[in-house]
Amino acid sequence: MISKDLLLEVASNQKSDLQRHASALERSEMKDLPLLRSHALIISGIRRCGKSTLLVQLLRGGYPDAFYLNFEDPRLYGFEVGDFQKIDKIIEEREVKDVFFDEVQVVEGWERYVRQKLDLGDYQMVITGSNASLLSRELGTKLTGRHVTRELFPFSYVQFCEFADLKMSAESTMDYLNLGGFPEYLKSRRQELLHQLLDDLLLRDIAVRYGVRDIKSLQNLAVYLISNVAKPVSGNNLRKILEIKATSTVMEYFSYLEESWLFFFVPKFSYSQRKQLVNARKVYAIDTGLVTANSRSFSEDHGRRFENMVFLHYRRLYPEIYYFAEKGECDFVVFDRQGLVALVQVCVQLNPDNLKRELDGLWEAMKFFEQKESVLVTLAQEDEFEKDGYKVRVVPFHNLAK
Predict the structure, then answer these.
(1) Segments of the chain assigned to CATH 3.40.50.300
(2) Lowest-pLDDT range of 34-38, 62-66, 287-291, 381-385
(3) Keyword DNA-binding, does the record have it (predicted)?
(4) Which CATH superfamily is 4-151 part of?
(5) Do residues 175 and 68 touch, judged by C-beta distance below 8 A?
(6) What is the C-alpha to C-alpha distance for residues 325 and 323, in angstroms, rounded to an integer?
(7) d(CA 111, CA 144)
(8) What's the confidence (pLDDT) of residue 140?
(9) Which of 147, 121, 12 lies closest to 66, judged by CA?
(10) pTM recorded for the entire structure
(11) What is the DSSP letter of 156?
(12) Which of 4, 154, 167, 287 has fewest C-beta within 10 Å?
């Protein structure tokens, strides 16, 4: 339990610190945030991606008197559901109708309190957290549909260029590939921040939250995955490689890593749900700078990191992505709610040795999906290829991202 006086002190200190240390770059995600008093706004994303900065921009933009509380403050260890009654007293005394909760997922049962406030009809509830369960169907059940959700990622390439005052070009694309988009790291360029971030994700967001005892195996798995982005992985193979006792343990770790936003596991496209579950998945990391800093791959494999970067570009826009692999391979099959959006191949630089392979994978995918156009993303090349009524547009990443 937490005293009311301590809650007041912590809330006041946190709000002052938050507004003092926020980034000056306004996130473009601010432009279309759906703020409705009938629904909670839930913003979920990896640690240090800018969720708190987004809240500051909201506070400054129209909610200066809002009650703000970050539940990961050590002074709030021991906060229980019953302590929300003390928050009620504080906001009633201050006549506050706007409530912002940061990292609320650490409090079990928080959904009941938020639903209670929404039922009153005149509270604006804004929730952030670093766990993908905040976007899950389970949450929809607990709040009975009374929420709208947004994902927040580290800086996109466009935001990176704005932050670093760079022109969009092949050169700035390589800078973004190496540095990634975590705001604090871009300010300092100190790689130990990205080392510490990975440790925090594994220890605080996973080991503590899910009660993982074999932390060494979890760490070995995470480093293996971050060193092998854009490659197919399976629980059974990694169990053997990393000498983990059971495939089920590896699969549990996969789900934890995905819940913490560290990795995405992209399935092979199939109309059979069972085949999707059985086939190996391709792994991508949340940020290429995090890969650069923590990978144990000694070769500078720009190709796989470049593919990871292109994946993130599409994943920001569309949550449903697959890879296609039959005779050839197409890197990304992208869907929205209306259906197929794009077929995408990725190659840093096309040359006589790889051109046929890259195009063959696209020709096959276009015929399979009956899609007349596709995109081949490169670092700097621009071109167009046609065959049997099918067209491939070759586009540099910096033009794709505009």
Answers:
(1) 4-151
(2) 34-38
(3) no
(4) P-loop containing nucleotide triphosphate hydrolases (3.40.50.300)
(5) no
(6) 7
(7) 10
(8) 66
(9) 12
(10) 0.94
(11) P
(12) 167
